[in-house]
Sequence to fold (581 residues):
Amino acid sequence: MKLRTALRGAVAIAALAPFVVPIVAPTMADAETQTGERGRDGEVKIIYWQAPSIMNPFLSGGTKDAEAASLVLEPLGRYDQEGNPVAFLAAEIPTIANGGVSEDLTSITWQIKPDLKWSDGTAFTSADVVFTAEYCMDPDGGCAQLAKFEGVETVEALDELTVKVTFKEPKPNPYLPFMGGQSPILQAAQFAECMGARAPECTDANFNPIGTGPFTVKEFRPNDVITMEANPHYRDPSKPAFATLTLKGGGDSAAAGRAVLETGEYDYAWNLLLAPEVIANMAAAGKGTPVSAFGTLVERIEINLTDPSADLPEGERSTLTHPHPILSDGRVRKALSIAIDRDLLVEIGYGQAGRATCNVVPAPAMYASDNTDCMPQDVERAKALLDEAGWTDSDGDGIRDKDGKKLSLLFQTSVNAVRQDFQALIKQWWSDIGVETELRAIDGSVYFGGDPGSPDTFQKFYGDVGLFANNFDGTDPEAYLAAYTCEKIPGPESQWQGENINRFCDPAYDELIAELGRTGDLNERGRIAKRLNDMITKDTDIVLPLVDRGRVSAHSNSLGGVILNTWDSELWNVADWYRVK
Fold:
């Protein structure tokens, strides 16, 4: 069996505004396989080479944490494999046509399915939804998903099964709060004492959340393994088909791929960040099947605009108090960007599962800028920019300096073979223009973990530049782009939570985000989103996009019902998985 070289595109723009959104049912596996007793198929085993460190996505910006949590915690609605919104805890997706979205676009009203139960047997009500909003919007809490609540004025319970979200001004895209795996509902009773600054202290709730999803946590061992059991109160008595689930974390991408494709030890392997020929060789063993799709996942370098020096007092490193002594100069950032050969990175790291990009938002097409400013590689221009910025090699050692300071950077990322290859190549290209680069690889479980006490998280950003990939739920990038507004900067006062790890703060950018939030015309939304993309890429180079990545995962040949989804959690339909007989 060989890996397909052409990846399926999954771009849907029909869901971009409430007045045009189609309502579709979730894609289900064959009905014959979905009947029978809950737990009839025994155990299912999942492997993530980045181990989850918390089961609360509001306290982590890491994909691996949000996806692990999605097995237990659910939103009101999700996005299917084509990017279409589908109801989960809600009875239907609200629209103007069905009365769920107000004509003036200032509110969205959700009707909750009746008789839903939490895994402890208590009733799920609108009070839990209201509480979740209050939890994330608490100014002292440092919610990692605060961008989902951009422009929200109030969230109120109209009755036990009805929730109304009111926006400060017309919101053409009201599907931000409570939509997708990054914005699930927490049980108010369990998290009541975990508001504000106390949120990270609630270890039991954060590790063992009570949920409405198909599984419940039996044991959570941070950065290692999670064992789960079927939720006895799940709303479909025939699901999940598996009685237990094990999610093993850690190791590396190659080991995860082998565990599914070669040995058959595991049933599902997430995000195989491996060279195409490596995956093809593994798949030839015949134990499993790679699955792939393009979405909005972009491998990029993030630039720290603040000083991460260990010489600064704790609490002042990587904060606005101290601008970065090198990277505050846009000419240096531009030089770093154009010194990179993105086409070679694609060839070495992804083959046809990747494409070079200068955009942080590569899709859908209506939101993708025509920005090609970062290509092709231009070493001579990069050198000229550094000359212009005053960085010269005064002592002939090959490293530029200025005012007695070397042009030296700490480049960090998570442990992964492809990323370490990228680091090595980029280090050489930067060396060619006179930049000294120290490489650091951090275990992904820690790097993407969000522990406010750890010095190694990507939010704390105690490096100069960082490499990782990111994407957004659904097909509309509003919340994703809003992550770069001033209020999303992580720091001690927000428990080091927040998505604006660059510490970028531009009132003009914030104003344009607000304009996007109140703009209904799809063409105009596309124009604004492209402008926002360009502001953080080619205009300022605070983000250096590298590769528009196709997501490649794998499942065993004995696992049925798997539908790869690049627009939501990969584990979005785990309730529909079953064992092929």
